[in-house]
Amino acid sequence: MDKHSYIAVFDSGVGGVSVLRELRRLMPGERFYYFGDSANAPYGKKTTEEVRALTLAAGRKLLVDRDCKALVVACNTATAAAITDLRERYPDRIIVGIEPALKLACDRHPGGTIGIMATDVTLREKKLAALMERVKRDCTVIRLPSPGVVELVEAGKTETAEAVALMEQILGPYAERLNALVLGCTHYPFMKNAMRQVVGDSVELLDGGEGTARETRRRLQEAGLLGEGPGELIIENSSGDPAKIRLTQELLEAK
Ligand code: DGL
Q1: What pLDDT digit, counting tens, does each position of 223-233 carry?
Q2: What pTM was estimated for this model as a whole?
Q3: Are residues 242 and 175 in the same domain?
Q4: What is the dihedral of CA 144, 138, 197, 255, to 10 degrees?
Q5: Segments forming the whole domain that contains residue 167
Q6: In whole angstroms, what is the distance from residue 33 CA to residue 211 CA?
Q7: Both 22 and 91 in a single domain?
């Protein structure tokens, strides 16, 4: 493997940008190839089999056709459905997945009440049940299905009254009880401003972007594949819509 080749970052759409920005912050000298599959988003409403097939197709494109040196699956849903199959198929490649930051939340709020927002696929897959079992201890974990959020982010409507109304619907009934909220989908960090208007400032919002970036750097370092170039970014979106590329760039710069 060539350390000068690209690190692929894959998501069902524009959400993986919340991971990409952490990756770039940590490894500014790397070349990144971001592929968003917006033509097929949202993944979270599909069957596990459908998500697996789409993720394996993206993996093939990025690891075989584009020969990227590593693949970051910047999508909790795709990770839950297909990370094991990807690793079996490409045992010699660096493949990093993302999982909800539930351990961090439980470690930081012993005995607390933790909400976890995620897509339907992530919430029903056994990977999450196993993670909960492992890290929950004396915490109360509340699963929060979040229909409509991914669609809103894909439409670029994160800073709107519609976004706040949707957060009110999902989080309003629990706002008083939560100590922390785990954002178990890479699209959700872009809704933080809307979330804050509902849950206030005292609830800790946690996502897996930074941890995933650190794990990617660790794996590259271990393999002697860390790049040292000036850094570069290619953005591709399966929708073929230039507006999606612009939205990807905007989200990358968003605060
Ligand atoms: N961004 C994806 C995740 O992290 C899911 C979005 C979708 O449903 O397509 O789970």
Answers
A1: 999 998 899 99
A2: 0.97
A3: no
A4: -90
A5: 102-206
A6: 19
A7: yes
